[in-house]
Amino acid sequence: MYQSIQNNKVIRLDKYDTFVDGTAVKEVSELTFNICKKNVEDILLVSNGQLCNTILELYQDDGIITEPAGALAVSSLENIDKTLIKGKNIVCIISGGNNDVTRYPEIQDIALRYLNLKHYFIIKFTQKPGELRKFVNNILNDKDDITRFEYIKKKNFNYGQVIVGIKLFNPNDLQNIKNNLENHNFNYIYINDNDLLMSYLI
Fold it and tell me: Is this model's pTM higher than 0.90 or not?
């Protein structure tokens, strides 16, 4: 709908993200397009990470279970200029609570990445004693945590490639982790920004 409003005609998408399955469509209908074109003042875009963070906040703070599509209106409040709504009564419609509890680990992971607290790397580990201890002692800060450690391919007996998930205590410490990896000669690829690798590996 956003693309259609922007182009003043119904747009058919070749690719679209189905995470928010209640709103993900290739093409909106002419009827809904004309209704929105006539009555909707603006459409706000919300990232999956921002949305997941909202879903968790609604559950933890207010005891509200909501599906991704249902939380969109509440999540969009972050994107509105606060001076435009100050002193006004704002209504957000939570339009659905059909959320499978088995999705919460995925939702939490996406939210932590949005908050810059969860990071994934592919790291080459040499196959010799003490390598993991070296990583824990020299790369991580005291309150950081390893949330995933999984070999994905062993090319030979000398080293193996490992997916490492790290949960940071301080969201500003990512560069420090990268610097530590480089200073201690760990060969790595940071994959949070690589949608293709993330979709295959995480």
Answer: no
